[in-house]
């Protein structure tokens, strides 16, 4: 099997031409394959990992250090946008779809995009299912930059060989702390609270780590504070501190 990279907007056409047999992509390109009658989604990200953290805004460290006020203003704007989308049980989501469907943004048809954004997902013609949690932007504290999310991604980099050597648990914590900045998010949120645009309860009470969870398709518990123990629980892939690549039958 050959894996190749294709720009997302071109994936439906490439599938239709027979050049590829399937693809992994965000919406609306899966739904576009359904609307064209050329493909069906197999599984959604939310079914693999509930509230999967996906799109991010990343800034260089030197920019953040030189421009703290600008950085905080940008984060405030992102928080307000996320709150607007999730407000009133998603009452603004059709308007959001109209905005995103414009050619200067996503540029896909409104009818293709509106289902997943408003909470319904079409797997094939005649099979549309309610999925209220398919896209969540602010509720349940999903926009908060948890260290544990960064640690999970790092464990996958270790498991599949992108990290060639085993790392200690403190290493994972240190790297996550350099990249994810809940302090910046919290400072922006505190300003919004002071301005009356956000409620204190909208901020999670956390040290940056989510409680251990089994909200994954494999049911294996993940504890962001114990990455090597998590890695050791898999039969396939690079292990934790043992550094072994195994495949057990």
How would you sum up this structure, described in words?
There is one protein chain. This protein is mainly α. Strand 1 (about 120-125) and strand 2 (about 125-130) form a beta hairpin. It has two domains: about 10-130, no CATH class; about 145-245, no CATH class. Helix content is about 40%, strand content about 5%. The model is unreliable at about 245-249 (pLDDT under 50). Helix 5 crosses helix 10 and helix 8 (about 145-160) crosses helix 9 (about 170-180). The chain contains eleven helices and four strands, in the order H-H-H-H-H-H-H-E-E-H-H-H-H-E-E. A two-stranded antiparallel sheet has the order 1-2. Strands 3-4 form a two-stranded antiparallel ribbon.
Keywords:
249 residues; mainly alpha; two-stranded antiparallel sheet; 4 strands
Side by side, the strands of the main sheet go 1-2
CA radius of gyration is: 20 Å
Spatial separation of the terminal alpha carbons: 22 Å
Structural class: mainly alpha
Q: Which outline best applies?
A: globular
Low-pLDDT residue spans: 245-249
């Amino acid at each position: 099997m050959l894996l190749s990279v294709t720009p997302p907007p071109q994936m439906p056409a490439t599938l239709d031409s027979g050049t590829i047999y399937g693809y992994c992509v965000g919406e609306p390109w899966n739904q576009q394959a359904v609307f064209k009658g050329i493909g069906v989604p197999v599984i959604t990200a939310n079914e693999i990992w509930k509230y999967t953290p996906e799109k991010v805004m990343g800034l260089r460290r030197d920019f953040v250090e030189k421009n703290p006020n600008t950085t905080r203003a940008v984060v405030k704007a992102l928080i307000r946008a996320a709150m607007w989308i999730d407000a009133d049980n998603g009452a603004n989501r059709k308007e959001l779809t109209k905005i995103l469907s414009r050619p200067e943004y996503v540029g896909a048809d409104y009818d293709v995009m509106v289902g997943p954004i408003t909470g319904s997902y079409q797997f094939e013609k005649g099979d549309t299912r309610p999925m209220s949690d398919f896209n969540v932007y602010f509720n349940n504290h999903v926009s908060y930059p948890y260290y544990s999310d960064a640690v999970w991604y790092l464990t996958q980099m270790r498991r599949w060989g992108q990290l060639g050597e085993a790392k200690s648990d403190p290493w994972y914590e240190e790297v996550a702390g350099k990249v994810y900045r809940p302090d910046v998010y919290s400072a922006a949120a505190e300003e919004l609270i002071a301005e009356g645009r956000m409620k204190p309860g909208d901020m999670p009470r956390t040290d940056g780590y989510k409680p251990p969870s089994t909200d994954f398709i494999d049911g294996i518990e993940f504890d962001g504070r114990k990455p090597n123990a998590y890695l050791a629980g898999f039969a396939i892939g690079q292990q934790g501190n043992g550094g072994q690549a195994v495949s057990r039958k």
